[in-house]
Amino acid sequence: MQILETNRLILRNFAATDAAGLLEYTANPRVNCFMDHQISTLEEATEEVEKRSSDDSHIAVCLKDSNELIGELFGMKEERDSDTYGIGWNFNARFEGKGYASESANAFIEYLFTQQEVRRLYAYVEDDNFRSQKLCDKLGFRQEGCFMEFVSFVKYEDGTPKYENTYQYALLKKEWLSQRANQK
């Protein structure tokens, strides 16, 4: 992926120096959907950043002044609709409340719509993940629906799956273009 820069951030492929930062926010996932991506050791984090370093679907979000990893964005192209991407984000809690998620996601969305010719973006957000719901709203996504008991990432104490209700948000390129025109 080409390197993207915002006022305060750099968006780039993962690098070996990102292992400790990745471990910091993946060791104890705060959102159940990231439980499958939980990393427990620096060795596991090193292996993961090595895999991600050549994978354009995972983008490291780093502070411009220090190159410190503060989170990630991801975008997966739909197999059946090559102009449709599912996107998401995962950030270190230490850096919340500073606007980094919206700043980086805005840059990523612009890149996907203008450089990759994407037509449609969507994001899945659990019904109890209020921060991501607010971010979707801020980014201009519209809520398309709620899938009841859609997926399970964790189990109850008795071993049965805990199913989560999940919202689907979406944004079309033409909606994004219209929103940008109205902001001027």
TrEMBL record:
<dbReference type="Pfam" id="PF13302">
    <property type="entry name" value="Acetyltransf_3"/>
</dbReference>
<keyword id="KW-0808">Transferase</keyword>
<dbReference type="GO" id="GO:0016747">
    <property type="term" value="F:acyltransferase activity, transferring groups other than amino-acyl groups"/>
</dbReference>
<dbReference type="InterPro" id="IPR000182">
    <property type="entry name" value="GNAT_dom"/>
</dbReference>
<dbReference type="InterPro" id="IPR051531">
    <property type="entry name" value="N-acetyltransferase"/>
</dbReference>
<dbReference type="InterPro" id="IPR016181">
    <property type="entry name" value="Acyl_CoA_acyltransferase"/>
</dbReference>
<protein>
    <submittedName>
        <fullName>GCN5-like N-acetyltransferase</fullName>
    </submittedName>
</protein>
